[in-house]
Amino acid sequence: MASGGAAVDLEDVQTVDLTSELLRRLKCASKPDKRLVFIGPPGSGKGTQSPVIKDEFCLCHLATGDMLRAAVAAKTPLGVKAKESMDKGKLVSDDLVVGIINEAMSKPRCQKGFILDGFPRTVTQAEKLDEMLNKQGVQIDKVLNFAIDDSILEERITGRWIHPSSGRSYHTKFAPPKVPGFDDVTGEPLIQRKDDNAEVLMSRLEAFHRQTKPVIDYYANKGILANIHAEKPRQEVTSEVQKAVS
Ligand code: ADP
Ligand code: AMP
């Protein structure tokens, strides 16, 4: 029944879309697998850089924050559990996020590898990730540390507008959409995240320094950490990121 459903779905897809997806997959077949982690405080540019690298290397982009916000919006049991911590700028429990990452990584779109954005955020999450990957006989290739001074982040966070269904992010000053308030690709309205304000940012930064900084040391000790100057303009950060993962 399930495969019959999938066949009907494909019949409904426009030939031009099907052909371009086929060409994309053919191009991707020759690319090496890559398993990447992007670590950095809120507003450091992880979500901005991820789509560029995802497209270049045919990876999937797994942002635990985006997945959790989708679960909160859909009021799933997981979303209900996560909401209170997220609203306060605290981390949700390790078990919740490890579960969603484990499921997401097994999707076909992650076949050539992945970018983990916002995960792992605790040493326990990093250890659980290693266990998951060990079982598959693979490992993380590179961890990019989006290093940036806290003082730059308030302006980045309070000016951020996002397109919830795609995760695309804009900035009123640094990356304005073509039409203010609307997504460039779909024309749908942009929103500001509930936790993107100066007050909640303080707790998010506290969580980052206390719980996530040790994860940076964890990967530095494994010799797979690359530091990125995340305070630089967007294009310059992209060049650094491309160099670090190539
Ligand atoms: P993160 O995913 O790390 O929380 P984002 O990629 O969403 O951060 O970036 C936060 C905000 O800062 C967004 O509004 C984005 O447009 C903007 N931004 C991202 N990179 C830069 C940069 N290098 N210079 C200036 N603004 C940036
Ligand atoms: P982000 O979109 O990455 O800024 O994440 C938004 C919020 O989701 C965080 O403040 C946390 O409450 C929660 N969250 C996202 N990823 C994780 C994670 N790996 N571990 C725990 N909580 C997370």
Question: Can you offer a commentary on this structure?
Answer:
This protein has a 5-stranded parallel β-sheet, sandwiched between helices. A two-stranded antiparallel ribbon has the order 5-6. It is globular. Helix 3 crosses helix 10, helix 4 (64-73) crosses helix 5 and helix 6 packs parallel to helix 7 (123-136). The chain has one domain (32-159, 196-244): Rossmann fold (3-Layer(aba) Sandwich), CATH 3.40.50. The chain has helices spanning 2-11, 15-29, 46-57, 64-73, 77-88, 94-105, 123-136, 153-158, 198-222, 234-245; strands at 34-39, 60-63, 113-117, 142-147, 160-163, 168-171, 225-229. It is of the alpha/beta class. The protein has 10 helices and 7 strands. The longest helix is centred in the C-terminal third of the chain and has 25 residues, at 198-222. Mean pLDDT is 94; it is low at 1-6.
